[in-house]
Target: phospholipase D
Amino acid sequence: MGWSDVAVSLHGPVVEDLRKHFVDRWNFIYDEKYAVRKDTRYSKLVLYKRPLSSTGPQQHQGHHQGGQQQQQQQQQQQQQQQQFQSQPIPPSYGQGQSQPHTGTGAQPYQQPGQQYPPPPPGGPPPQQTQSSGGYQPQWSASQTPSHSGPTQTSGATQAPYFPPPPGQGPSHSQTRGIFDGSSSQEEGSRGFSSLRTDVTNFGNVLRTQLAGQVHRYQDRYFSGQPGQGQSGVRMGCQIVRSCSKWSHGTQQTETSIAEAYCTIIRESEHFVYIENQFFITATGDSQAPVKNKIGAAIVERILRAARAKQKYHIVVVIPAVPGFPGDLRDEGSLGTRAIMEFQYDSINRGGNSIMEMIAKEGVNPMEYIRFYNLRNYDRINASGVMRTAEKQSGVSYETARHQYDAGVTGSKPAFDTTSAYGQYQQAAQQVTHGSSASGRWNSVASCYMLGGEDIRNVPWEHNDALAEIDAFVSEELYVHSKVLIADDRTVICGSANINDRSQLGSHDSEIAVIIQDPSPIESSMNGQPYLVSRFASTLRRQLCRKHLGLIPAQDYQRPDANFEPVGVPNQYDLGSPEDRVVADPLSDTFQSLWNSRARQNTEVYRKVFHAVPDDTVRNWNDYKEFYEYYFRKEEVKKQKEGQPECQGGPPAPGEGLTPAPPVKYECGHVIRDEFPEGVRAVKEELSKVKGTLVEMPLMFLIEEDIAKEGIGLNKLTEEIYT
Model:
């Protein structure tokens, strides 16, 4: 099963918050798990005080002002930047809420000549107030640029953190190195043990210093020196998180991620794009046990747009089946069904869902918010190799696979070449493709991407047409990303799902970053000229193009700049025909293309693979006819010979089992019954698939209680799934 994810890399002062967050968490876990057991393998981490910039304020300012060419470029962009300027971001997450952590504040964008000196060394810490914690919004389109005066939380001229050289730091032992390793000497250990401890501690200090120096030079390179790295524009970044005393050692529960989601949605002006692994949220207090109010923010913003007759839209992309796919009727799928039920109750069922609350106000919710999934297909070009390996080993692939699966879930003995799995593996390793099998079409996934070959023209390197039909397989493309993009200007990206576990702070601990890039690009919104952020807009456009099949398939044998490690700027073809079609997310052209491709892909997968969930499956009887008839195995009768079926427990291995009849089709494969014409008809249908976008089936099992209450799901356990 393929995954779709989004990740970001950060450089600059905001990394200091991440370092402090890590040290806080490390020390909390150390106290909880290792200190109480007197485990000497690990030690607490200590952060040094942040040193001043090695270049000094004047030199640092000169770096931004030096160079006539750079000044001219800045002057040319000054007018646009004044229209699209982020205000300085307030102190970062948790101040006044999380006792162990003291945020440095995110790095605001500042024009040359507006660098503020840091507080003097050894000065009093910033005063923390309850009102300073959590996410605080920075700007809207109607705001004008403003810059705050010098404050103790401003870190504009402070260099990236790195430890002081040996002998120059405070003399206290805790500040000598990241490890606090003085206990062996205090306990009277001398001689070699003492020397070993000294060497270890010195190594820790040296390693920390080297890491800090590397970070400093790396940050200098990536901060935009002329002709190097990325542009010199600094983005506003703010770290937010979910944590509490039990998970992170904070004195109060922190919910700055949830605050950021709700605030950014409420203050969005035109469009919100969301990708997330889950979507469980509440519109009010009547959807217990769900408590997070992201759904309420969505309803509020949509109704405000409807009353103002404003064109506004939210796109949500989530997995078709949360967790992991499988037969949804199985008893082992109760957890998956429970999550699906909570998601549907958040979206369009139960009486208080987002769509129902909007519809109660006389507004058509489909005009303002829609939900989508991702799905793909490929062709497993291994039939010839598989048959040869089966013939040489005398073991079928399915037999070897079942034995391997059984070993994974149980104990793991040494590799046994006499077992069915071992025999098959040995034979498979000796099999090579014939000269006619080039391997060019081992995958056909490129066929539904930009510039890909038409699947109808792709050859099959074997003579068996029936084997080619069976080689096609489809799976959901699992959305694992957690990203929100508002108005192509603001991005939230991190580890937090849209559910209570990630948003409430009292459950799982999470972290995310809010990014506002002040470098503008001229674009349009609903057909009107509109300035957008380069980072946010290109990220949203790239994701939309990927799902629509408007980017070429990646070829690992032809690397480009986007294959390079972190620090090398990504390439994006601004102004290309494919870029222009997704540039305005409210345009009729984009909306029509997005929805028509999702619908077309959905219909193809419905016919070719009988993929579930599906809108035509309204109850369990529909599910049986549409899916189980083709894919589900019948129950194995577990009874001993000569014994009534209702007596006794499970038989001993291999004793008295009635073998289950084989399934008609392997899960995810083509339903041949739909294509009496053969493989050509299958390829004709698959040629219609473009990209990976499909509609989310909001009517799936709508006539059923998907997850009935019982031992595994009840008032005591339901919070596990939210």
Summary: The longest helix spans residues 192-222. The chain is about 35% helix and 10% strand. Residues 663 and 715 are 37 Å apart (CA to CA). The mean pLDDT is 74.
